[in-house]
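CORE FACILITY INTAKE
Project code: CF-77B
Contact: R.S. (postdoc)
Sample description: multi-component assembly, two entities in total
Requested service: structural model of the whole complex
Turnaround: standard
Below are the sequence entries exactly as provided by the requester. Do not edit them.
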Amino acid sequence: MIMSDARPEFAAELRKLPLEERMRRARAILDQIKVDGPDPKLRGKSMEDIVQMVKRTREEMAKERLAARP
Amino acid sequence: MRLVLDSNEYIGAYGENLEPRPARLLEYLVAHPRLHEVVVSRTIVEEVRRNLSEDRYKQFWIFLALLDVEIVEDWEIPHTLPTKYQAMGLKTGDASIASCAEAVQADVVITENRDFHGRSGLPFRPLRAEEFLKEQGASGQPAGG
């Protein structure tokens, strides 16, 4: 289950905040990304590696969708 | 402008030592929240989930909510569209992203996936993050203002 399915009310609360507050929090997340450093799953990967990784995931998901059809 | 941001743009923001720095696109969108509407498909959200650690995915999810990003469910996309894009030569997964972009009438799909670039006949413009930022006059400088 993905989080947005689990916590729609939380997302709705965030979306209701004033624009300036939302952007302040969004900026804080981007700052936090810099502080935390790279995701361990992405260490040593170039942008092209990431693009290829996503493409593999995308095609896997497409196969899953096809397999799930009645 | 109505934008679809591909998952590689979000995931790239969590990469290391990448140049140009993918996070600049996200910084630009935060600095200019009234200029663009951002849309993603459920597929894109799921791709990010599968390729990031859980805590980073949670950050991403909150980020989408803060930017008021519209999430389009796969079932909202007309089922005839993916076939059309597959006939144009896109792979099945990429066809679903192109279909989402057409369904939401996106002006631009921002992606580093070269399979989208250099194609004619698309109802949206595929741009790399740097190309988009350059068009917006935000290339080569911090997107702070």
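Facility notes:
- Chain A touches chain B at residues 2-4, 10-11, 14-15, 17, 19, 22-23, 25-27, 29-30, 32-34, 36-48, 50-51, 53-55, 57-59, 61-63, 65-66 (CB under 8 Å).
- Chain A is about 75% helix and 0% strand.
Invoice: internal transfer
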